[in-house]
Amino acid sequence: MKGFTGPIYSYLAAVLVSMVLVSLLLALFRIPIFETYTLLITGSLGSMTKLGDTLMVSVPLIIASASLVITFKAGLWNIGVEGQIIAGAVAASFIARELQMPTQILLPAMIGAGFLGGAFWGLLVGLLKIRGGVNEIFGGLGLDFVATGLVVYLVIGPWSRKGIASTSGTEPFHENAWFPTVEGFRLSPLAVSVSLLVVLMVIFVFNRTQFGLKLRSIGLNPNSSYRFGIPTSRYILTALVLGGAVAGLAGVTQVASIHHRLVPSISGGYGFLGILVVLLAGYRPFLVIPIAFFFSMIAIGSIQWQLRLGLHSSLGGVFQGTLVLSVVLISAMRLLRQRREKHVKTEE
Amino acid sequence: MNPETLAIVISYATPLVFAVIGETITEKAGVVNLSLDGSMLLSAMTGFAVSFTTGNVVLGLMAGGLISSNIALVIAFSSIRLRLNQIAVGIVLTLFAAKLSAFLGQDFVRKPGPSVQDLHIPVLGDIPGIGPILFQQNLLVYSSYILVGFFFWFIFYTRQGLNLQAVGERPEAAYARGIDVNKLRYFYTALGGFLVGLGGAAFSLDVKLGWSDGHIANFGWIALAIVIFGGWHPIRAALGCYLFGLLQLVALKLQPLFPQLSQVLPIIPFPLMIMTLVFINHRKIQYLILRNNVFGRFITGRAPSALGESFQRL
Amino acid sequence: SSSGDIDSDSFKLGLILVGPQNDHGWSQAHFEGASYAVNKTGGELITIDKVNPADSPNVTVPQIVDDMISQGANLIVATSDDMKDGVLEAAAAHPDTPMIWASGDTAWSDGEDYRSDLKSLGNVMGKMEYGKMIAGCAAALQSDTGNISYLGPLINAETRRLVSSTYLGAKYCWETVKGKSVSDLKFKVTWIGFWFNIPGVTQDPTVVVNDFIASGSDVIISGIDTTEAIVVAGQAADSGKAVWAIPYDYEGACSEAAAVCLGVPYFNWGPSYHKIAKTVIDGNFKASFEWIGPDWDDMNNHDSSAIGFMKGDGLTSDNSKSLDEFIEKLAKGDLNLWKGPLNYQDGSAFLPDGKEASDKDIWYLSMLLEGIEGASTTE
Amino acid sequence: MSLKLLNIRKSFGTILANDDISVEIGQGEIHGLLGENGAGKSTLVNIISGSLTSDSGTISLDGKYLDMSSPSDAIEAGIGILHQEPLVFLPFSIVDNFLAGLPKSRDFDRKLLQDDVRKISQEYGFDLDPNALASNLTVGERQQLEIARLLWMGARVLILDEPTTAISETQRENLFTTIKLLAANGMSVIFVSHKLDEIQSICDRVTVLRKGSLIDTPTLPCPTSELVNLMFGEYTQDIPQNQSVIGENLLVLDGICVKDANSVIEEVHCKFSEGEIIGLAGLEGAGQRILLRGIAGLTKCYRGRIFFKEKEITNQSYKWYMENGFHYLPADREGEGLIQGLTITEHFALAGNQSQTIDWNKAAQLAEDKLREYSIRGTVTSKPEDLSGGNQQRLLLALMPDNLSVLSMEHPTRGLDIESAEWIWKELLERSKNGTTIIFSSSDIDELINFSDRILVCFSGTIIGNLLSKETTPYEIGSLIGGIHS
Ligand SMILES: Nc1ncnc2c1ncn2[C@@H]1O[C@H](COP(=O)(O)OP(=O)(O)OP(=O)(O)O)[C@@H](O)[C@H]1O
Ligand SMILES: Nc1ncnc2c1ncn2[C@@H]1O[C@H](COP(=O)(O)OP(=O)(O)OP(=O)(O)O)[C@@H](O)[C@H]1O
Ligand SMILES: [Mg+2]
Ligand SMILES: [Mg+2]
């Protein structure tokens, strides 16, 4: 499946359908519909602080989605992205905890470590795939849980707070290991820049480089690609390692700009959410930014649903799920109709 | 560990047995239903909500089964009719159903409600040793034994079971023998989904009574892993579930000795799944699979050849 | 907004909960306490629940505090030990807004974590030690097997002192009231790793309690935020086992399985929150550390007692009577269980004979007491 | 009992695969179905066996009209088909293979069936252990399994679609014995093959198809030459010959053996010169494809040695081959040649081994030029799936590097119209003139004779003929393809 492909009107039709479905749900629960939607906007964009928070949520989501674009384009269902985010976070936390250094050195070291940590976790998925014959879907899924297990072990064991055994998290890092923020906001320009840079890099790789073109061709047709002289296994491994490395950066931003410590749920589910974003974007990296931003608006705006309307916190997720489900199903039905019409024509 | 503790292993693993058997059947037919975690959540919620409202546990179980069976049908429809990737649809449905369960279940959180009643089987339950472990449980647990036995018999010893395997193994050959491949796939995906839903409902009506957000404790993902660990064989899969239950308890027993490790033991199904996959993909092992008969099939297990592939007739 | 009077109708209390507000436990107790306060003062309660990284990855405490303040909140209450870092950050960012971190110790000038710089951050906590002692006593009174289990959350100073208090209550009633030998009393704690169950991260409390029962415990005492202990005990009783449970935190928790409930030690946050809200409205809020004991005249008085113990249907009338006598002794001050000689779990001395523990000794208890089975730390 | 086909017609889009076919096959008759690749044989038997529905025409068995919409309808009517790759379930036991898809009317009983399997095995001299796993059987035994199953299901008409391609000589003998026995027991057998000797040795009559039409249905035995003529048409014109300049000895194959999952070629000894054009004749699956892949370095030889310019290159990587001017063009242009979803410009960017970053303007310019040069109907943003077969082939040629040493190519003109085919050959001859050695396979004897200097004939995984095209005749090639040494 290519995620969403096709003209903009059918995209809009799907968005409309999902809004209607969500509205029906709201009506069913006697929730004011119009207010719900306006709160979503004001709650996520209504002030500089809120805009900043929305941007900060979009950072890991954008990075995770960018990572997924890399592997999806190479035809790989990298469900291991969650684990790779976690591995990046663990590696960055290790640096933050172990190295006493000025922030100018520490932050780049954390970024580098997160990159390597994620890459290592991606490498495991890749080796399992090309050496062990384990499909990346199950290899990745398994390693997601192994990564969580690793964090739980660290948090309750070697990295636990003194006298405390709680899975809640490690001691906060020294402030040198925090991404600097804009005075008075939680917005970290560094984190936002990392996410934009990553997307730009992915766009560059797929628009401008041989490497990206080769990954795409492997994703589209591994047989032909091999005939063209592309060493497919090596590229698959590279894609998973690179995807993992990028995902690792999401882990870095999570520990260094959001939590300032390692917590078991450090990935925040952004890996799985990223899969939805990428499906909606039809694997197109530039669409990742607006869609991830919109998802972040839902995530942040829906806090207001809870605070102002007393709505349940899961409504935002229901909205996102409905949206993706309708877009994916509607575009597939459109394709089916097209195939039918073509078929009828050739029969005539 | 005393018999009573082992009895907990059995009852704790029971929802997992339902889900694993369900998913095994679905995958035997060649379809992967990746939405298990979401499906089980939604059916756990539905099962409890219906039982709570009607006071009838059986109705709750059925409702849980039906809702999950409908999710499974969405996957079947998207892959068979719309030719969408099963994995993609599965993931979307997982997240969607999980959130929906939290939203729809908000009025039922932590309410005391009906639960499945224990029923000790007179003679069997008094057998020293295994009696208290296996037969001082409830009807749901006994049904899970019957289910495992039934599907073992059904898959390997009946006409319909053979057709089920045929569809997942080589759909074009199945079609050539007059089997309606896609109809069976719809059916077994829905049936598998129903059992998965029973598992979800069993969780909230028997293992962890009531409803709370994220109630089923990753059981969906664990079930997916155990289907593989179980080598797509109902009995081995059930043993996998009990092993998982046992590990949970071992983890508790180890807490005073290895407090850090004990917390991590519950993830063991996942490395086991990966190791199983490496194992069955190993060339020498594959040789074993091909050479050995019943024993080899049990020990090695293998995925249905056409798992995840769609079928279109000529 | 901190100085000067506030029109009580426009008063807004922002409440940040770690779990669901209907958890029949810790969070619900806070929610009802805050509702009580706002009912009394007038004004509005703004609540957000499930503020923890597992349930709400996009939501942090400072972010919520910002938002509540921009909505006009005059007092903000953060209700979890787990919110420490966020609360400190928010208090530093909004030095003029009165805030309460329930269960913390940052306003305790004698405490180890005193933050003199955070002038508007106060702490409130009920002396649950008493509630737990009563719970322990009730457990020992009712237990036939002398096998009592404690469902522990995570390990820290707070949980160590609560488990220890429970044990002290149990030991006293086992020895003194029932006249049995302490060597026949088995008191075991198993920790799940957090205040409530997080799938894949914590141990599953349902499994833990089932295991307690299978290994012969007939009374389960809960120390976690949610109700698994009593639910599982109820289920076991349904299948014919003689098992009782003592839930925690929330007055109504017994309703999950009334027949097996021996009682519940609970927090009654209402009076404390009301008092603080009034100081905010009157413009004389002062951050302080409040560790408030029960109203010994009537522990279950909603308008005055910070903690209480509500007896459950499961307690026999004889035991109920004995328990009342035990409570009476505590109330009169005749009985101080935190008094030497007391040893730590490893046998080393905690308090010499006759010495009473200070508040600091208890608050910062570094190890479980002798006689308790289970981990004290992970080191 | 007799099977009667009347006016069967079937088309796929514009291709008329069966054009008004009428045949009658009697009881106990072994009826051959003969024709070159793509003649329409499989289409016809798929219609008879219910896998395909015809556009028009009727099928009747014993005068009863059959209305079949699926293979199970055919089986019910008594018509069974054995596919080239027997459709068995490998992980199942033999008994279970019998039982899968069993109609409701039959009892599901493994015990009884074991006896049945043994009985049938005995009757037809099969060696089938009812409890053995199908995955442990040879292809020949799998065929026996399928035949036994079809008999057990009550087939009275048995169709065998190219059953001898993948089995050994002894297995073939066994199969033929079986077929004769079946016919003697009153079964009608339809035997599809390209192999003339097989047809001659077991068939009573043969229907010859060419390009979808029924040419004739002679009774056998008849002179093999006549069959060759019926299959390929009469060659009366004098065909202009290729005039390549043959240079130095370039490539030497010293007894190489290559195989993959489906096919094998063994013991190939051959020398190719610079600028030489070599045609590979043979049936599908006789080994041409795997030989071409071996020559291009895409599949490694497991025995034998390859020398290039007098240096041994046997174990070099595919990358090395590509860098040294080897190139392979597959028959499956969309599946293994081009990449669906990439534009033509992107194909050129991928093929041109340029620097790591791509200059799209340059790539588009290159694509633009090549489109013009190779007269490809399409734009630089077209994708392979938008192009016709001829244009896909032109694109594949356009994507090749300029100075090739060895071009290894399957079916250069399959599916192309005359004009495109001529254009392709003009291009290929040009390259050969510039020194490229071209090795190609083809099922078109015209093409082989017309354009090669030498023709190698593959049969069942070996080379059985090495002919100078100037000296050979279509008849000689056709006989060798059918495995007959004249
Ligand atoms: N499903 C299909 N769709 C489109 N074209 C088809 C299809 N099946 C066959 N054809 C075309 O119909 C023609 C006859 O094909 P068929 O497979 O019957 O030939 P054949 O005689 O069996 O050839 P071979 O000897 O190679 O097996 C060919 O041109 C083929 O490309
Ligand atoms: N799958 C397809 N998708 C889109 N367009 C197609 C497709 N197949 C064919 N076309 C369009 O139809 C045109 C005619 O295609 P077709 O394959 O029938 O050509 P043709 O006449 O057989 O030519 P050739 O001899 O080169 O094969 C193509 O040029 C192309 O533009
Ligand atoms: Mg054919
Ligand atoms: Mg064409």
TrEMBL record, chain D:
<keyword id="KW-0547">Nucleotide-binding</keyword>
<dbReference type="InterPro" id="IPR050107">
    <property type="entry name" value="ABC_carbohydrate_import_ATPase"/>
</dbReference>
<keyword id="KW-0067">ATP-binding</keyword>
<dbReference type="GO" id="GO:0005524">
    <property type="term" value="F:ATP binding"/>
</dbReference>
<dbReference type="InterPro" id="IPR027417">
    <property type="entry name" value="P-loop_NTPase"/>
</dbReference>
<dbReference type="InterPro" id="IPR003439">
    <property type="entry name" value="ABC_transporter-like_ATP-bd"/>
</dbReference>
<dbReference type="InterPro" id="IPR003593">
    <property type="entry name" value="AAA+_ATPase"/>
</dbReference>
<feature type="domain" description="ABC transporter">
    <location>
        <begin position="3"/>
        <end position="236"/>
    </location>
</feature>
<feature type="domain" description="ABC transporter">
    <location>
        <begin position="245"/>
        <end position="485"/>
    </location>
</feature>
<dbReference type="GO" id="GO:0016887">
    <property type="term" value="F:ATP hydrolysis activity"/>
</dbReference>
<protein>
    <recommendedName>
        <fullName>ABC transporter domain-containing protein</fullName>
    </recommendedName>
</protein>
<dbReference type="Pfam" id="PF00005">
    <property type="entry name" value="ABC_tran"/>
</dbReference>
